[in-house]
Each structure stands twice: as C-alpha cells, then as structure tokens.
Amino acid sequence: MHRSQMLPRVPLKVSVGLRGTLVRRRPVVREAEAKLHEATAQTGVAVANFYPDVTLNGAVGVESLRVSNLFSPTSAAFAVGPSISIPIFEGGRLRGTLALRESREREAAILFQKTVLRAWKEVDDAITAYREAQRRRGDVARSVTEN
Q1: Distance CA 38, CA 48 (A)
Q2: Cα first-last separation, the chain
Q3: Range from 10-14, 25-29, 128-132, 134-138 carrying the lowest mean pLDDT
Q4: Phi, psi of 89 (to 5 degrees)
Q5: CB contact burial 25-60 (16+ within 10 A = b; e otherwise)
Q6: Rounded-to-integer distance, Cα 102 and Cα 96, Å
Q7: Residue 56 contacts by C-beta under 8 Å, 6 or more apart in sequence?
Q8: Alpha-carbon torsion, ordered 93, 95, 101, 102, to 10 deg
Q9: If you ran DSSP here, which 8-state letter would residue 73 be given?
Q10: Which band of pLDDT confidence, cut at 50, 70 and 90, is reported for residue 71?
C-alpha cells in the first residue's frame, strides 16, 4: 500500500458556519450564560421575599383513647387552615439580600459580556487564520499547476 492511499482525502473547504453561531456553541459562553440566568433568578427570589406569603396547610389523622376505636370513622381528625407570613420586621435583612443579589447579577452580566467578547475575538481570529490558510493553499496549488 502506498502512503497516499493510507491517508483520507481532506475536503478543499470546510463549512464553519456563522460567527454568532460558533460563539454561542462554545462551552464557556454557555456556562457564563447559565450563571447569568441563575443570578437573575436569585434576584427575582430576593424581590419576591418582600411580599407576604400565604400558604394553605392541611393534616389528616386518627385519634382514639382505645385501640379498638382507632380506625372507626368517629376517630378521624383533620385540620385545614391558612398560614400567612408578612415580612414586616425583616426590612434590613431583605434589603441587604436584594443588594447582594443585584450585585451578583451585575457581576454575572459583566462576566458574560467579557466571555462573549473574548470568544468572539477567538472565533474571528480562527476564521481569519482559516481564510488565510485557504488562500495560501490556493496559491500553492496554482504554483504547482503552473510549474
């Protein structure tokens, strides 16, 4: 077998796609985007903590003084009722938590922006290098044909 038969044929051009698509597919960009989404959600939770919380609780059980009456319909017990939590005296803690969450959200947004810009530069540099390599390959192919 000749050495040229062992190597697979390389296509003359490789489709790389759009730059924006390449940037979005990068794992570091996806990770930074996920952190930004998480920080935004945590800010939303901190804002929601300022509002009253209403819950409906329920319990079902059995009560009896004698074991023989334990499972009779008259020994059934249940309770249903609302529970209301109003954050009146937690203002300082809630405001501090909100300020912390907002600053973390801003930090995540800045990190996301830096990551996207760095990824965009790397993708742009790679596409430029690929285009230059394709141009050099074409020049070499023409030189070989002319000689």
Answers
A1: 15
A2: 28
A3: 10-14
A4: -100, 25
A5: ebeebeebeebbeebeebbeebeebeeeeeeeeeee
A6: 10
A7: 80, 81, 82, 83
A8: -170
A9: G
A10: confident
3-state SS class at 32: helix
| Three-class secondary structure of residue 50 per DSSP | coil
Which amino acid type is present at position 15?
S
SS3 14: coil
Distance between CA atoms of 62 and 72, rounded to whole angstroms? 9
* 60 DSSP β-pair partners: 78
- Cα 113 to Cα 22, 28, 107, distances in angstroms: 16, 12, 10
Asked if pLDDT for residue 1 goes beyond 60, the answer is no
Taking a C-beta distance cutoff of 8 angstroms, is the pair 39, 111 a contact?
A: no
